[in-house]
Amino acid sequence: MSRTQLVLTADEGRMLHGADGDGVALAMRVVVGLSRAAGASRLVEVTSAHVDSCLYHGKVSLDFATRLVELGASVRVPTTLNVGSVDLLHPGLVRTKTDAEREVALKGRQLMSAYLALGCKATWTCAPYQLAGRPAVGEHIAWAESNAIVFANSVLGARTDRYGDFLDICAAITGRAPFSGLQTDEARRGTVVFDCGLLGRDFLRTELAYPLLGHYVGSVAGTENPVLVGIPTDVSEDRLKAFGAAAASSGGVAMFHVVGVTPEAATLELALQGRPPHSTNEVSREVLRATRAELSTFSSGRLDAVSVGTPHASYAECELLADLLREGPPLHRDVAFYLSTGRATMAQAEQSGVLRILESAGVTVVVDTCTYVTSILAPGLKNVMTNSAKWAHYAPGNINVDVVVGSIHECVASARLGHIALDNSLFVEGPP
User: Fold this and answer.
1) What is the number of domains present in the chain?
2) Do 177 and 28 touch, CB atoms closer than 8 A?
3) Which domain-ending residue is among 138, 162, 183?
4) 3-state secondary structure of 281
5) How far apart are CA 421 and CA 126, in angstroms?
6) What pLDDT is stored for residue 238 in this prediction?
7) What pLDDT is recorded for position 2?
8) Does residue 430 register a pLDDT over 90?
9) What are the backbone angles phi and psi of residue 318, rounded to the nearest 5°?
């Protein structure tokens, strides 16, 4: 069987052979190697990058970034940075009691500094789509971090494949990525249809519907591109963010279509590119009730902490939380409440007064990192509630907690009581 021959332009060949310096040559070798492995026939120029490899996962993470700095590399396209291993604005939040925690804090900070030395922007957010200068429909980019990838492809209509650690920064340095996968038209075709009509419009206007729907769809679709039918056309970006993050966690979803909503799905036929789907699935409230039970490792009793904002909370979500906390009973004294967001969003909340309301109510605001990847929650906090299916999917294994999924309203109500308070009436079947 013949293999596709990768053809480089004259400029790309010069980069590969060191004309732009040793750092660029190293980065181009990585891009070229992955392109050949992916069967790409050429590279594609990208207009921006989002780097996930700034989160410390061990010595190799720091060694690679440091080597690029030593070789004089720098990014040539606007490059944002994902969360790191330290909250640089609130360093006291990160625990450093054990040798392992101290290593992550020290090396993680060094890694974050290395990426700044390469010319990346100090955004430190998993939600770069909340920042100014978002890519346009059809724009080729090189974004890593699963929820950023799926949002860019699906909601923005930009084009990025699934890029992991090291390829992300190498694409930023070279301005090139493999022309393969979701960079191409064919790979963007919807393949699995999910009919959400049975859920009813009232249910689909609730916050809780979307993380649960995302988790279920991801578990069924795997790495295919799901197509949702029956979603209200005025669904917000925050709802789509929650859906995509969950689908990318429970499966490998890197692109989805919502008929009548997302850029490449004006109609079902367009989303499917005129071909029949591999399968069609109906989604009921009972299915999503079971999904909540599957995601939750406990469902009643004492509550130790709440963590919201995974992916990072938008300003609208910060406003909603502040509105819920502005009046009413205080948070229970034994419940810690964490909100993760980007530093740009926190600055906006500070300017508007929203941050003051949150902190006065007892909310700890975390930036630059996230509570499910960094040692922030105290070891004694075992029973945690979240409105994020992504947080619920990863936190039990990452930080050894039990978790229950609820809406932001359920999270606040439970945090005030000191124990779990769920509204299961949401799942009672109603009119479509």
Assistant:
1) 3
2) no
3) 183
4) strand
5) 29
6) 98
7) 47
8) no
9) -65, -40
